[in-house]
Amino acid sequence: MLQQYEMRFCPHCATELAPIAQMEDGGEKVRLRCAACGWTHWNNPVPVLAAIVEIEGKVLLARNAAWPPKMFALITGFMEAGESPQEGVAREVKEETNLDAHAITMVGAYEFLRMNQVIIAYHVQASGTVQLSPELLDYRLMELKDLKCWPAGTGYALADWLRARGHEPVFFTPEENAERRRGLDQPKEGT
Predict the structure, then answer these.
(1) Residue 6: its pLDDT value, please?
(2) How many C-alpha atoms does 105 have within 13 Å on its Cβ side?
(3) Most buried among 32, 34, 124, 189, by the most CB within 10 A?
């Protein structure tokens, strides 16, 4: 199970944060605020980069080490300070797969509300020999006709990209998606 962290204390003065109403541009808004110094926890979504990695006409899907055996998805990672989204997605592809990005084209931006993230998805044409980082356990190179999309942010990005390529996307059925995710929300032993 993914652990959600909650901001509880002011990062400036360590006072416990409290839900405090305050006037903002859109009217009164309750947010976690510090009563001592006035600091506000905005809780803005985090930008996450996703790559539809294409190698010689096939799409690379990878399995994260924390995922169940049937769950494969796009290469993703957090954008870092000081880099453009394009630089970030090229870095993530290199770090996680050892592939070199040659052409990077934006697919779109997608909400991932459950994780408070905004996914910025790119199509990345890449080359090289796949060598997975320790974060990833396995990968598959898929023909476009064999790809199935999942009902979440990166799955919708893949569907949009497939449509733009002239392929009508096929989504996992609810049963298939539940099977590929089986065990994902289970607590790990010892936690």
Answers:
(1) 83
(2) 10
(3) 124
